[in-house]
């Protein structure tokens, strides 16, 4: 049987089979990604092959079996039942991924974390205030999506809270990223502003919602999928930051096709497995202008005749983008890419 992973609750993966049944699944054996250890071998959005476990030996199944015994005398067919009520199965194979979004599990970690797999759109939910998402975070996310050729949309939320300076910054950010070719939405999950345009964009697509904690991913989800009823929580009063309210990734169906994958907020976006020379490939404008550098292997940091640095001086490349590029080259400490 094949199906799609729609929820990851720690060590269990809920899989919806192609004929619509739900199973709580465990992973059989070890799956490795390009020989690198991942904190989650299977991610929401993965297409998997599963094998139902009919005679379970899990504690839940035993409880179920002993409960059923008196009544079920003679004819004992006890499906293994996970406490959630779902029958259980083993994931025996991960089918080839069309794409995925991956980051380093934590700073200095050699482990990776696959945020989601097989998405049509990577929606990066950001806020320019309460809390402020850094451009380094935005650019690192975009670079990772570029690496696996996942289209990106920048969803800038909480515009209802922006003061005049924030609104000017909003305009500058939208101008910058639209010019680079990324779709941008300025929205408010509070007032509903901009949500119709966002809804149109998401229609029929499987979209990942990722971003810092507290930017309103789950609140947006609840507007777009009214019966999602995902938990949300106020920012911490002391730090004006999110409280990591969503703890598991989950896919929710959109009316009329497509879905949204809501994920736990992340602090830094540690990029994963890039060679130094590769980094510029994922910054569109730097890559394009880099063709005019004197040296083919120019890192755009100190070389004579570097077209990128000339463009930077002429304000043809945004300083913030160049700084993000440098931060990825140097792979600075976690605090710097928040
Ligand atoms: N004023 C205003 N508040 C918002 C908006 N969107 C979300 N919020 C509030 O921001 C807080 C955090 O929202 P959540 O949806 O829990 O944020 P999240 O991104 O899911 O956070 P994590 O699950 O921790 O990653 C809640 O108090 C929301 O009500 C908005 O557009 N405007
Ligand atoms: Mg959330
Ligand atoms: Zn150069």
Principal-axis shape: globular
Our count of domains comes out at 3
Alpha-carbon distance between the two ends: 41 Å
Helix-residue proportion: 10-25%
Beta-strand residue percentage: 15-25%
Per the CATH scheme, the topology name of the largest domain is: Rossmann fold
- H/E element sequence: EEEEHEEEEHEHEHEHEEHHH
Q: Architecture of the largest domain, CATH level 2?
A: 3-Layer(aba) Sandwich
Distinct small-molecule ligands in the complex: guanosine-5'-triphosphate, magnesium ion, zinc ion
- Report the structural category: alpha/beta
Largest sheet: 5 strands, mixed, barrel
Task: Write a structural description.
The protein contains 8 helices and 13 strands. By secondary structure, it is α/β, with parallel strands linked by helices. The protein has 3 domains: 2-94, Nucleic acid-binding proteins (OB fold (Dihydrolipoamide Acetyltransferase, E2P)), CATH 2.40.50.140; 100-262, Rossmann fold (3-Layer(aba) Sandwich); 276-337, Orthogonal Bundle (Ribonucleotide Reductase Protein R1, domain 1). A 5-stranded mixed beta barrel has the order 1-2-3-5-4. The chain is globular. 38% of the residues are buried. Bound molecules: guanosine-5'-triphosphate, magnesium ion and zinc ion.
């Amino acid at each position: 049987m094949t199906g799609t992973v729609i929820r990851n609750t720690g060590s269990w993966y809920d899989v919806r089979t192609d004929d619509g049944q739900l199973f709580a699944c465990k992973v059989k054996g070890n799956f490795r990604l390009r020989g690198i250890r991942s904190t989650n071998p299977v991610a929401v959005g993965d297409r998997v092959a599963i094998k139902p476990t009919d005679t379970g030996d899990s504690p839940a199944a035993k409880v179920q079996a002993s409960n059923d015994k008196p009544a079920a005398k003679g004819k004992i067919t006890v499906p293994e039942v996970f406490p959630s009520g779902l029958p259980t199965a083993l994931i025996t194979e991960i089918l080839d991924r069309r794409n995925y979004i991956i980051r380093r599990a934590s700073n200095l970690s050699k482990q990776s974390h696959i945020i989601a797999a097989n998405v049509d759109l990577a929606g990066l939910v950001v806020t320019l205030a309460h809390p402020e998402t850094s451009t380094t975070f935005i650019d690192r996310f975009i670079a990772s999506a570029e690496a696996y050729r996942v289209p990106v949309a920048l969803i800038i939320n909480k515009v209802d809270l922006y003061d005049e300076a924030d609104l000017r910054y909003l305009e500058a950010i939208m101008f910058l990223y639209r010019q680079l070719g990324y779709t941008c939405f300025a929205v408010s999950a509070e007032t509903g502003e901009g949500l119709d345009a966002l809804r149109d964009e998401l229609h029929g697509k499987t979209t990942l919602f990722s971003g810092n904690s507290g930017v309103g991913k789950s609140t947006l989800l609840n507007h777009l999928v009214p019966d999602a009823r995902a938990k949300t929580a106020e920012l911490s009063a002391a730090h004006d930051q999110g409280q990591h309210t969503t703890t598991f990734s989950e896919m929710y169906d959109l009316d009329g096709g497509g879905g949204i994958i809501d994920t736990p907020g992340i602090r830094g976006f540690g990029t994963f497995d890039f060679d130094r020379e590769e980094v510029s490939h994922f910054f569109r404008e730097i890559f394009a202008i880099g063709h005019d550098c004197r040296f083919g292997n120019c890192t755009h940091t100190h070389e004579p005749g570097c077209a990128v640095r000339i463009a930077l001086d002429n304000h043809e490349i945004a300083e913030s983008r160049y700084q993000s590029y440098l931060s990825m080259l140097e792979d600075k400490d976690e605090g710097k890419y928040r």
